[in-house]
Amino acid sequence: MDRIDVALLGLGTVGTGVYKMLQSNQDVIARRTGLLFEVKHILVRDPNKKRKVDGVKNLLTTRFEEIMATGVDVVMEAMGGVEPARTYIERAIRSRCHVVTANKELIAKHGAELEKLAQEHGVQLLYEASVGGGIPVLGTLQHFLKANRILRVSGILNGTTNFILTQMGEHQRSFEEVLAEAQRLGYAEADPTADVEGFDAAHKLTILSRLAFGAVVPVDEIARRGITDISPAELELAHRLGYRIKLLAKAEQFGEEGPVALQVGPTLVPLSHPLSGINGVYNAIHIEADTVQDVTLVGQGAGEQPTASAMVEDLCNLFRLPLPRPLSYRRPLVLPVWEEGGARFAFIETKDRLGSDISQQVKERLKRFGTSAVDVAWLPGDERSALALILRRWDPSLQEKLTEELELEAERVVFRPLLGTPEPVGAEREAKISSAQ
Amino acid sequence: MDRIDVALLGLGTVGTGVYKMLQSNQDVIARRTGLLFEVKHILVRDPNKKRKVDGVKNLLTTRFEEIMATGVDVVMEAMGGVEPARTYIERAIRSRCHVVTANKELIAKHGAELEKLAQEHGVQLLYEASVGGGIPVLGTLQHFLKANRILRVSGILNGTTNFILTQMGEHQRSFEEVLAEAQRLGYAEADPTADVEGFDAAHKLTILSRLAFGAVVPVDEIARRGITDISPAELELAHRLGYRIKLLAKAEQFGEEGPVALQVGPTLVPLSHPLSGINGVYNAIHIEADTVQDVTLVGQGAGEQPTASAMVEDLCNLFRLPLPRPLSYRRPLVLPVWEEGGARFAFIETKDRLGSDISQQVKERLKRFGTSAVDVAWLPGDERSALALILRRWDPSLQEKLTEELELEAERVVFRPLLGTPEPVGAEREAKISSAQ
Fold this sequence. Notes:
oxidoreductase (chains A, B); HDH_CS (chains A, B); Dihydrodipicolinate Reductase, domain 2; HDH_cat (chains A, B); six-stranded parallel sheet; homodimer; Rossmann fold; six-stranded mixed sheet; methionine biosynthesis (chains A, B); Alpha-Beta Plaits; NADP (chains A, B); alpha/beta; 437 residues
């Protein structure tokens, strides 16, 4: 049986998980791959720190050079952050080591150039764990959707924000309150910016769009909005209208090698859509393609074990699955997204007292102004009332004039995109059905 | 660019889909695989029948020998049924052709021996399309869960029955009525036995258990029940208790190389479980494993395009992914399942008029007899009332004595298994929470 020498960079949550899995599942791995993986070195910052695994003392080192000097077959990077991970990975590739990493920020920012470098040196760089934790979404795109034209990839890619939105919706709690709880539970960082402002999801979307469309889009060109301005009332009204609000990351390509549109932001997902029921810390990716139609993958998007699993599966595949075909990445035209027409959800907080006839009033007033509302819901509230509409067509001027048209004194108005086209409701639906018959 | 000669057996729905995809997506496939696939022959029964695709006239033949005589690289079988598909595939393998098939019945019954034959002849036999249509579940088990110990695979594997149950539940319609509609829509066969009695799902479960556990279990050893005795009232009461009834196929392994339990039958899936929201003709597979925790794959389980997609993706992978490791299939001990203890859903139709205190009465009576109900729901009904219970522990004697204990004159009693352990509800839940604090 061939022995493969592995160096592990980092022994935090994910690194510990990888080490433990390589011990506990060694027999399964050997039987199914014919390979024996042995961790020879573990790079850490502090060799004296107490560790959660036994028997690693003699493997620890603080010097990356030492690892390269003795020579290993594979470097598994579980440190996170761009530097020094990038420098180490580059040096490993130049020394003809395969590399497995879970580092989404690094792969989002420098993945294309690192893959090119790996190809030049005849080694592989795999990073399944960087998107969706244990969900094999990158492998699915690369190996099981090669003969399909991928049209759109939509995902719930951040478990922290999905946990927060789920809790807010189920228990009518404020963003601030649930964030504090998530921090206590260890689901959110002390500085939650990367999660709640959508940066983490944007990194992952960059990686997905590269594998789905060959499109290299810098993270800062992704239209991005966070979840900090969402209230339980907004979630409640969206639900009454038949939607869940999710922090959705969406990449679309318009025609083969055509322009792309990428966005991360709170989005209304219809209750009938597979992504609407993804709750808590789960992640999911919905892939639309020309022949398979749609495939959705669901799983745990973070955590020691699922992330370690994805890294160790990559490790096994380095020696089983072929090198990818020469890469043909491109820098596509990136279309603006927030300005696009199409349907919108509008959420309005107002000090006006809303009567029970508000729904009919709103529909009539909007019609007079040439805009039509598909559906309306409202909450009376004690100090502030809330009103929500599904607008069939949106144009940027509505940003200014919607509340004027509705003759409401608005405290706050937000617009959110919808995934897909709104279903007709009520009388409109009946009209459509009878005309179809 | 290498050219690969393909013979297609069958030009029905799936065969037509394969032919169309190979034409329409030839450019994508060539770019991503470096291969040009060309259909050289199509085996049909009637060469004069009108076809849904153009340009195939010169490719049609009724003689399999003719195809073998000219020599092709790959045979794609889309005929269905055991014979003559089995004979053709064996001969193709012996002539050193790779084989791709969508034939679940054949692979369920003879897959292990055909794979062995293929291995002896240095060719591959791939059959992703045989389970879950376009969902890449077999590929995921083989390539992305090698380093994991798989514990349990649960799936909604039959689109016809899932469509029927969804329609019955959403619109309170009877089984017979919805079946007739499914037949009109082409979702169900004129003879619906294979679908509604669970044979189709059992075939697919056999294939899943072979790939997940290396366990070869003959289809007739799978505990199997159909959906013909389910009423809208039963679906309604299950929903009130927090569940959806699904025709679930479940395979579990107890310990590495240990015994297995396989069952297909109506099962209560908690609303919080990813499989509970899979509706209509969608299929889904939930995989539990020791390190990745759980992964769910969702997609269209049948139809021309999704099934063709899975076959063409297999076709591409023949030349890209490595031959599997020498197979080590085994005939495991198969445990009985319906007799097992554990929780049950009981649904009772009675001519007794149920009072509003029935819930409390039931709980008390059951307690007296040493059986506890977690939760109770009931419907008054016009002629017959219906009562449903979640029983924490079940033993076979309850089959006889449950209604006697409840002092009800039962017209009909059915018991169904639950996926997972029932959540405590009401006072019991509060007691559990307060004792945990």
